[in-house]
From TrEMBL:
Keywords, sorted A to Z: Hydrolase
SUPFAM superfamilies assigned to the protein according to its UniProt record, in alphabetical order: HAD-like (SSF56784)
Domain of life the protein comes from: Bacteria
Protein name: HAD family hydrolase
Residue ranges the record marks as coiled coil: none
GO molecular function: hydrolase activity
Keyword Cytoplasm among record annotations: no
Pfam families given in the database record: HAD (PF12710)
Length: 210
């Protein structure tokens, strides 16, 4: 039976950072984005409010900024190697993130079968952000179920990789999970835990167990 590996992005594949933070760094608005991220981490705002606030910062954002942010981001090492191995085993890998889809979807070029993020308007922005397109922790489970149907696997055949409360629902829904550089709350829910900078080492925890 094939397996489906589901990866979070912010704080998981990206070490110590998020896609919005890397994007904002390109236009000199890093500090403003840190403040917004602190607000959502503390529960003072939810994903729709977060999206609206970063959208308001990104009035001058271009595809070139996003490309530079992606290229310069602090990625874990070994991502492409892990996904090549997963594909070679006949399994599937996908990224599901609350970050903007225009950043997340670039990971299909690295070997992800699918990549889902919050839907923002096309760049440069000429339309408002639609709250209905902004993902939540619960939406990650819904997307996982859709991917299971698409790839012909069951929840029992899924492995989740994440680092924070936005991954909690997925960790609770799936039988196998890997906390990567995670906060203590999520680590306590995970079947495996990893601290480090190499995705291959985190993947090995699952590969050895299976």
């Amino acid at each position: 039976m094939a397996r489906l590996h589901l990866f979070d992005l912010d704080g998981t594949l990206l070490h110590g950072s998020t896609a919005p933070l890397e994007i904002s760094r390109q236009i000199g608005l890093e500090a403003e984005t840190v403040a917004i991220e602190q607000a959502i981490s503390a529960g003072r705002i939810g994903p729709p409010e977060y999206a609206a606030q970063v959208y308001a910062l990104w009035t001058d954002l271009t595809e070139a900024h996003v490309a530079a942010a992606f290229a310069g981001a602090p990625w874990l090492s070994g991502i492409e190697d892990v996904w090549a191995e997963i594909r070679g085993q006949g399994d599937y890998c996908a990224v599901v993130s609350l970050s903007p889809s225009f950043f997340v979807e670039r990971l299909t070029e690295w070997g992800a079968h699918a990549a889902y993020g919050s839907r923002f308007p096309a760049l440069p922005f000429t339309e408002p952000v639609d709250p209905a397109g902004i993902l939540s922790a619960a939406a990650k489970v819904q997307i996982a179920d859709r991917l299971c149907e698409e790839f012909g696997v069951k929840r029992a055949d899924c492995i989740a990789y994440g680092d924070s409360l936005s991954d909690r629902d997925l960790f609770e829904a799936l039988p196998v999970s890997v906390a990567i550089n995670a906060d203590q709350h999520l680590a306590s829910l995970a079947t495996h835990s990893y601290a480090g900078l190499d995705l291959w080492e985190a993947y090995e925890l699952v590969r050895r167990a299976v």
